[in-house]
TrEMBL record:
Keywords: 4Fe-4S, Electron transport, Iron, Iron-sulfur, Metal-binding, Transport. This is Ferredoxin. Its cofactor is [4Fe-4S] cluster. It comes from the Archaea. Residues 72-95 are annotated as: Disordered. The keyword 4Fe-4S applies. Ferredoxins are iron-sulfur proteins that transfer electrons in a wide variety of metabolic reactions. GO terms for molecular function: 4 iron, 4 sulfur cluster binding; electron transfer activity; iron ion binding; oxidoreductase activity. It comes from Candidatus Naiadarchaeum limnaeum. The keyword Cytoplasm does not apply.
Length: 95
C-alpha cells in the first residue's frame, strides 16, 4: 500500500499551518478559483509523502479543521485511512 497525504479542500480554511509543519508535502495556501477564491492548501506530488510520515501525522493532528488524511494511492486515492494518531483528540496523551 502506498499512502499519500490528502487535503479536503472543501473543508480547508487556508491557515497554512500544514505548510509550516511539513513544507515538503504541503503547499502554502493560495487563492483557489475553484473554491470562490478562498485560500486553500494542497499537496506536493513530486515527493514520497511516506518519507516524512511523522511530519504529515503532526499536520493531520494539528490541522484546526481536521481536513487532512492519508489516502491509499494504490486504490486510486479513494480509500481514506485512519490512524490512531489521526483520530486522537488534542490534549490526549500519546500511548
Ligand atoms: S492546516 Fe488544515 S486548514 Fe490549515 S491550510 Fe492546512 S489543510 Fe488547510
Amino acid at each position: 500500500m502506498v499512502r499519500k497525504a490528502y487535503v479536503d479542500k472543501e473543508i480547508c480554511i487556508g491557515c497554512s499551518l500544514c505548510n509550516t509543519i511539513c513544507p515538503e508535502v504541503f503547499l502554502e495556501s493560495k487563492q483557489n478559483s475553484e473554491y470562490g477564491g478562498d485560500f486553500k492548501s494542497d499537496t506536493v506530488n513530486t515527493v514520497n509523502h511516506e518519507e516524512v510520515t511523522d511530519k504529515v501525522d503532526d499536520a493531520i493532528q494539528q490541522c484546526p479543521v481536521q481536513c487532512i488524511s492519508w489516502r491509499d494511492e494504490s486504490s486510486g486515492g479513494e480509500t481514506k485511512l485512519t490512524t490512531k494518531k489521526a483520530t486522537q483528540k488534542h490534549g490526549e496523551p500519546n500511548h
